[in-house]
Amino acid sequence: MKHVAIALLGCGTVGKGIVDLLEKNADLIEEQLDTKITIKRILIRNLAKYERMDLPKSIALTTEFSDIINDDDIEIVVEVMGSADFAKECIEACFKKGKSVVSANKDVIADYGIPLLKMSQEHNVDFQFEASVAGGIPIIRPMYSSLNSNRIDRIIGILNGTTNYILSNMTERGLSYEDVLQEAQDKGYAEADPTNDVSGYDAARKIAILATLGFHSAVTFRDVAVEGIERITQEDISHAEEMGYAVKLLAIATQSDDGISLSVHPAFIPKQHPLANVSGAYNAIYVRGNGVGDVMFYGQGAGAFPTASAVLSDVMNVILHTNLTITGKRGYVWHQVPLVDPSHIEAPYYLRIIVDNAPGVLSSIAGIFAENGISIRSLIQKDETKEVAEIVLLIDSSADGLVRDALQRMTGLSCVRRIANAIRVIEI
Predict the structure, then answer these.
(1) What integer is the mean pLDDT of 10-33?
(2) What are the ACT domain coordinates in residue numbering (predicted)?
(3) Which residue in 182, 209, 218, 226 has a CA-CA distance of 20 to 30 Å to 366?
(4) pLDDT at residue 53 tops 90
């Protein structure tokens, strides 16, 4: 039986999951590959921190990357550190030494994916990153393999478990955003500083990766228009339910004759749509191709074993390529495609506006919409007191720039106290 030695860069939750899952499923993996995989070294930052971790004695811990890069026995390096710049340097060094790399690092892939793929081919090694998007859900390989006979028109994803947990619990339990966020932090679903998740940046990196592969396009995280869930209130959740919608943080990539649009934002989505029923910390990706039609991928988007599952699948794929002598031979096609200005992206909108409870308010608001060419689909005056009223509107599909301009003009009306929220409506 052939033997392959690998090394891990990092041994946090995912790294430990890889160690445990490889041990748990060793027989199954060896049977399929006729190859025994052993973890020879793990790069860590602090030896004392890992002295009590339950790791096999055969694994050597090191704080020096040079111990791994200069070890000729190590054929595959698994990068699960999470940092971007240092991880990129390590990956490039591995390529130059003829070592294939498997990465779960969305930050690196979103920013440097295409240059790293090109570099891996130059050095005849593999670079695989299934775990960089949606944990254990197989979506990366389908994008460039299973669906590659299609022109992909649209990718819509619930790509962040923390935000989906928050919005699901606000909906199902009637809790406030602040209360659910605190609960998520207590349970370990959210970081002490949740900005990367709740502000949409995590999902933005993932949709950039999927768009790169699905659209064969040279896009990065910086091309994504991003809006988080911090302004979503229980009032918005309740109004959505009354109208037959669920509120989700969606990552959306669309390809049309005009170019590519990339965005992450909260959205109203019809309750009958499969994505509306993805609850808790689960992830899902909905893909539309001109041949396959609509397909959806669903599962656990994070966690030790789900992510380790994707990582080890990549390791097995690299070994298979080595056995078939096709390492580094996978070809990719990239196009420079124009990006659609986010202000030109059209969608219906839900609007919640707090106004004076006085005559002429509705006509003033309707007038501004008419001047911007925006049609009102429905208007309901909700909770009101003697002095203040809440107006909830649905407007027909309109360019984001026109909607924002109209709302900005409304803030200048003396009868408008504040624009409480403006949320896109996804009609699929």
Answers:
(1) 94
(2) 350-428
(3) 226
(4) no
Check which CATH number belongs to the domain holding 374 and give it: 3.30.70.260
Burial class of residue 114, CB neighbours in 10 A (0-12, 13-18, 19+):
middle
What is the distance between the alpha carbons of residues 160 and 141, in angstroms, rounded to a whole number? Answer: 19
Which tokens belong to 89? 């340097």
The stretches of 276-399 forming alpha helices (DSSP H) are 304-323, 361-371
List all residues 6 or more positions away from 206 whose beta carbon is below 8 Å from its beta carbon. Answer: 106, 110, 132, 133, 134, 157, 159, 160, 251
Extract the tokens encoding 49. Answer: 């921190």
Q: Which residues of 346-370 are buried (b: 16+ CB within 10 A; e: fewer)?
A: ebbbbbbbebeeeeebbeebeebbe
- Residue 247, SS3 per DSSP: strand
Q: In this predicted structure, what is the pLDDT of residue 52?
A: 74
H-run or E-run covering 142: none
**CA gap 175, 246 in Å, rounded:** 15
- Is position 96 annotated as part of the catalytic site? no
Per-residue pLDDT, 384: 72
Residues 161 and 293 in one domain: yes
Same domain, 115 and 192: no
Sign of CA dihedral 150, 151, 152, 153: negative
Distances (CA, A) of 40 to 43, 47, 56, 75, 89: 10, 16, 10, 10, 21
The number of folded domains in the chain is 3
Cα end-to-end span (Å), the chain: 51
Band of residue 114 on the pLDDT scale cut at 50, 70, 90: very high
255-265: pLDDT as tens digits = 999 999 999 99
Write out the two tokens for 424: 């896109």
Domain of 410, in residue numbers: 343-425
The distance of Cα 257 from the centroid of its chain, to the nearest Å, equals: 25
- pLDDT for residue 412 is more than 80: yes
> Quick one: 263 and 118 in the same domain?
no
424 DSSP β-pair partners: 267, 349
Residues 175 and 236 in one domain: yes
Q: Can you tell me the distance from the alpha carbon of 17 to that of 309, in angstroms, rounded to the nearest whole number?
A: 9
What the block records as the tokens of 349 is 């909108």
Q: Tokens 């096999």 label which residue?
A: 56
Rounded CA separation 133/155 (Å): 13
d(CA 102, CA 8): 9
Q: Are 70 and 7 in contact (CB under 8 A)?
A: no
Containing H/E element for 66? helix 65-69
